Structures are given as structure tokens and as C-alpha cells.
Amino acid sequence: MELLPGGAHAQVWAPKAGRVELVAEPDGRATALEREGNGYFSGAVPGLEAGGLYRFRLDGGDMLYPDPMSRFQPEGPHGASQLVDPHRFAWTDQDWQGRAIRGQVIYEMHIGTFTQEGTWDAALRELPALADLGVTVLEVMPVSEFPGRFGWGYDGVNLFAPTRLYGDADAMRRFVDGAHRVGLAVILDVVYNHFGPDGNYLKCFSDDYFTDRYNNEWGEPINFDGANSKPVREFFLCNAAFWIEEYHLDGLRLDATQSIHDASEGRGEPHILAEISGVVRKAAGGRATILVGENEPQHASMVKPADEGGCGLCAIWNDDLHHSAMVALTGRNEAYYTDYRGTPQELVSAMKHGFLYQGQWYRWQGKRRGMPAFAMPRPAFVNFLQNHDQIANSARGLRLHALTTPGLLRAMTALILLGPGTPMLFQGQEFAAGAPFLYFADHKPDLAKLVEAGRAEFLAQFPSIAEPAMRAGLPKPQAEDSFTRCKLDHRERESNAAVWTMHRDLLRLRREDPVFAAQRVGGLDGAVLGEEAFVLRVFGEEEGDDRLVLVNLGRDLTLRALAEPLLAPPLEGAWTVLWSSEEPVYGGCGTAAVEQPDGAWRLPGHAALVLGPARDFPTKSDPMKSDGAGGNTTPVIMVSQGSETDS
């Protein structure tokens, strides 16, 4: 629908219909639309103004249907559509240039649970704190209209209508405008692989939106490559551009891209994802954009440029690193963690190469997983310890801090936030939120039972959860408290200040330290130091200006033989500790000197240390330790004091 002086112009694709009328509400005034001859109907609608309600009548029937491209559904997906004026909002972000993927820190959030109020306006008030934390990109879970009072958003049915549950259309615009004002980019999680099971009226207009030629575990697959698929593709391409143009979004996160089936490339035509990448960049009009994909098989081709046979995305989620880290932190490797051991070598390999599986056999799925990804740029890997799926898959929705020890979590957090790639946090992770994150969905009773059974079946892949006592206690997705218990209490930023401070300091180190910030190609190597310890060496632009990241996930470790060249000190220099996860300000127990009087290195257990060149050697009575044979000498490693005044 497009606003015009004195009315509006309507257009709808309805090839099944012989006659289409737009019916204004509440007076019931009907306006017949003209057939265009290509399945579309269109026409002027006098008197329909911004805020006006309407639906479509097909072939004179009694049923009235919402607009498939409705901009707002004030009464939900089963109600009337509302005409929205996209130009009414007064934007203040004219100087905003967007953000490219390199150097970003992503924060995944669900508007309904990010605050107690669960609205755009309430979320907006918390954005300065996220900017102070060091976050640069907000990844908002799906907001397209869906039925019920609460849900994750992945069962949306009105793709152009932000859900009424979080506020009106301009409330979302206020949120984006306010985010840009404090330097935060906003990308939206969109679902282009299926529609939700309730409130989807697209088949009333055309059966060609869907196809039975592919499988999709969440719903009917979308017809991107079959008969009459051109208008379907146009629908989704228009939606992608719509969010960038009308809501000033900075990009998209594409859900489950492995289930976006399109064989168009076999006909010499672009994959729909490549076209989406193109229209997003064009719609941005010169602003930098970010396109992130979820791709469970981890196909590296997703991030190749479209003209090189790829899909043109900027980055994809790195499930391999998450799975290995979870095994290391919890000791559990059941279900889809089966093929991971959580060893230092796995973690070093993930830091160096991104994906652990790049075409090898994957026992859990009984097939090969991934493809070569050695050429993928480091920022193209989105690395995380928590996200909405993985937290909910712990049966009780427990946060990671409830599944491991504080020291281990601090050490692994340092690895993720300082390592190569694009780090991502999930809402509340930055202050160890006490709220769980459960799977919740408010459906009609019959559908709710099916969803509950389906969720229990999915979780039964974990033998520990399939055990009867656990299964009996699974939270019900349709229960209101499954939703309300997940709401964050931002006062925990103060009560859990140690966790917040650690995240902020790590992100500041990543941003301000020139070596960590550079993310140089080929600028990292790593080595295993023990059964549960390893080192990463991040090479600086200048010779000798390197950083060591030492991680020990086991008990205290003493290295008496240092036959590892990555530990070698800078030329004519020494190492000093720049950061330690054991600083008291983070809840740690303090950091003793790394190098012992006898030259051995002592790595504290359940800890991570960052070492850098000592710019000025400390003055000591014996600053150099002789090797006893008049040969080389080894500078003493000094520990710098952590800053508690900046917490």
C-alpha cells in the first residue's frame, strides 16, 4: 500500500482470484481492484488515510484477509491491516554511515524479554549501557508479526509488519534512530525459509508461495525456483529492502539459510541469497551494511562474493567453536556435541581456522560436514559462547555461568572476545543474568500441544534430558511464566559488576590494543602447552610487538621446559602481563608472577592471561637471570597491576 494525496494505491498478488476488493474498516466500504494481467490486482483507494484499517475480499467471499504486505497489524495476524505512513517519523540519523563487519561486536537480543516492559521504548533506554560495554551491533531476534502474546519470533507470518507486542511501527523507528545516536548499528533476524503455522493467509492468494519439492523441519518450504516463483522472489527481495529503507536498519541476520532452497543457479540465475545481498546493499544507498547467516552445515560459500559463485554474506555463525567450548566448559558431549572433545588443540584450531569441520566425516549426522574455509576472512566467523538456541537447549534454559565454574567461564570469555573473528554476546551474558532463556510460544491449545510435544522430542536427543524425571519437568512453551521468567533485570549490572567489568575491559582491550584490533590475515598461531592449556600468539605489525594469550582450563600448570617458540620473548625484550582473568575486580583470586625464579612458567588454573612486550624494563637488583653458563639471559616477566579504578 502506498499513500497518495486523498487516499492510497493498493497492489496485491492474487493469481488464484478472479476478483479482488479492498474493504475499508469499520465502514465496510469496498473498492474493486483492476486485474493487471500478471496475477497482480491494483487500484486507487480514495479516502483511505494513514492509520486506516482494511482487508482484502477475494472472489466476493465472506472471508476478509489481511494484506500479505501489511505494514502493521494492530490486532495481530488475524485482524485488519493498518495503513502506515513511512515518512511521518522524523529521523535524526542523517550522518550515520553504517558499519562493516570488521571490528564489530554483536549483541543478540529479544525485545520482549530484554526489559521487564518488553517494548522498543524500554529497550531504547538501555542502549547507552551497551555502547559503554563496547557492543557495536545489535542483532534483534525476529519481530515480524506472529500470533499470541509472546514468542521467539521465528513463526512470523506478516513479514512487513513489526509485531504489535513491542509497540507501533514508529516505536521501532525510535529504537533504531536512538541506537544510531549512541553509535550502535542494528541488524534484524529475518526468517525466509518458512512461515509460522498460525495466521498465514498467503495460500488464499496463491499456492505458488510454497513448494513440496524440498524438506523443511519448521514448515512448508518457500518456492524460490519453481513455477511462478518470480513474484515470490520479488516478495522477499522487497522485504529485505523494506527493512533497510523504511526502518534504516544496517543489515540482516538470515535464519537457517540451509533451508532456503533454490536451484536457480542450475539455470544460470543467481541464488536468492545472492540477490538479497545485492538488494540490501543497494537499499542502503552507500551506507555500510552487515549480512550474517545462520548455516548449520557451515558452508563457506555463503560469504564468497556473488560474482565468485557465493551468496555475498559478510559472516556466518561458528557453531563448531561453540560446541567445542561447551564441551571444554561442562565436560558433556552428548547429542550434537558428540563429535567435539573440547581439547586445547580443538580450540587452537578453531582460533586459527574458524570451522573445525571443513569436509570431514561427522558421526552425529552420518555425513560429511562443512567445506574448506581456509580462505574465509577472520571477521566472517561469528564466535559466541551463548545464543538463544543454545541456552534454551539446556532443558531449563540455564545460562552458561550456571553450567560451569566462574574461573573457566572467565578464561573462555577472554578467548572468545580477544580471539580472531567477530564476537557475539547474548542478552544478559555481560552481567551473568539470573534469568533463564527458555523456548516460549503462545499458540492456540491444539497447536500448543503439538509444539510442546515437538520441543520435547527435539530435546530428547540429549540422553540426560530424555531421562523420565528430566522430561517430566521440562518447561511448557505455552506457559506464560516460560516467557516472563526470561525477562532481564538490568539492576544485575550493579549486583554482578565483576562480570560486567570483565566484559567491558576485554572489549576495550580488543578495540584499543592495536594488535588485537588489527585482525591481521595470517597474524595468529597457537600451540598446545598441556592437557588443558594452550597459547595463542597474535603477531603485531611491528617486529616484536606481539601478544600472547595463555589459557589454562585445568589445574595450575608449571612449564619447566619451554621448547615452544611461540613463547619466545620479544627480541631484546620481555613479556609483561597486560590482563588477567584472575584480577580481584573480576572476581578472581589474584595473579602471581608467571615466570618463577628458576625460569619455569607457572600458569594459574582456570585462567587466561594476556602478555605483551614490556615497554620499559623494571629496575631490579637482578633484572636478568643467567642461564648459568654465561650464555643467553632471560628477562624476568613482570606482572602489571590491574586497574580497579575504572570499574
Helix and strand arrangement:
Layout lengths: L1 E3 L2 E7 L6 E6 L4 E3 L1 E2 L4 E7 L6 E6 L5 E2 L15 E2 L23 E4 L1 H4 L5 H6 L1 H7 L3 E4 L3 E2 L12 E5 L6 H13 L3 E6 L11 H4 L24 H17 L4 E4 L17 H13 L5 E4 L21 E3 L1 H12 L13 H10 L7 E2 L4 E2 L12 E4 L3 H5 L13 H13 L3 E5 L18 H15 L3 H4 L1 H5 L7 H5 L7 H4 L1 H16 L1 H5 L5 E7 L2 E6 L8 E6 L4 E3 L15 E6 L20 E3 L3 E7 L10 E3 L6 E3 L2 E2 L8
Question: Describe it for me?
Answer:
The protein has 647 residues and is α/β, with parallel strands linked by helices. The protein is 24% helix and 20% strand. The protein has 18 helices and 31 strands. The strands form eight sheets. Strands 10-11-14-15-16-17-20-21 form an eight-stranded parallel β-barrel, surrounded by five helices. A six-stranded mixed β-sheet has the order 22-23-24-28-26-31. Helix 7 links the parallel strand 15 and strand 16. Helix 11 packs parallel to helix 17. The longest helix is centred in the middle third of the chain and has 17 residues. It is elongated. 48% of the residues are buried.
Can you tell me the overall shape?
Answer: elongated
Helical element count? 18
What ranges have pLDDT less than 50 throughout 5 or more consecutive residues?
617-647
Strand order of the largest sheet: 10-11-14-15-16-17-20-21
The biggest beta sheet reads: 8 strands, parallel, barrel
The CATH architecture of the largest domain would be Alpha-Beta Barrel
Within CATH, the superfamily of the largest domain carries the name: Glycosidases
CATH class division of the largest domain:
Alpha Beta
Kindly estimate the percentage of residues that lie in beta strands according to DSSP: 15-25%
Distance between the termini: 51 Å
Number of strand elements: 31
Q: What name does CATH use for the topology of the largest domain?
A: TIM Barrel
Percentage of helical residues?
10-25%
Backbone structural class? alpha/beta
Question: How many domains make up the coordinates?
Answer: 3
Taking Cα atoms only, what radius of gyration do you get, to the nearest Å?
A: 27 Å
Rounded mean pLDDT is: 94
